[in-house]
């Protein structure tokens, strides 16, 4: 399997060579780190890639954070993935104090992202449901993220895109999928 490197300023790189001399620290690029990654340091290559992926996540969320806070978006993601939940369980999932969480739910309900209803099995339990508006917001962020990733992959040759897909699959298998509680901290 041949090694693939990608220099964010200059496009795909042949044989792992990338001219980093004109990259500036102010732009978020660290030429020394990038050079180590390009020379086969797996830790640096993975760290560099993780920063690139986090940048994609941040860009996909940027418009959304004008509408909801990151903790509120985390709630929407959890509800989108799990369906209606008891308010106490939802607060626990986002690691929030129930009284603070209830005030946040008040704001989210006023904005039309969620609706609270008494549980059909216990009048003492309150279930939080995602509204169509809340579900649409999660879909829009996911679509923006998918589009950003697709754009990056289009810059690669089909062979390199296949190598990246295999490498990510191998890495994901070795890392094991993190529990939802870890991902929720990032609004994923």
From TrEMBL:
This is MarR family transcriptional regulator. Residues 44-173 form the HTH marR-type domain. GO terms for biological process: response to stress. PROSITE patterns: HTH_MARR_2. It comes from Agromyces bracchium. One of its GO terms (molecular function) is DNA-binding transcription factor activity. Signal peptide: none annotated. It comes from the Bacteria. SMART domains: HTH_MARR. InterPro entries: HTH_MarR-typ, MarR/SlyA-like, WH-like_DNA-bd_sf, WH_DNA-bd_sf.
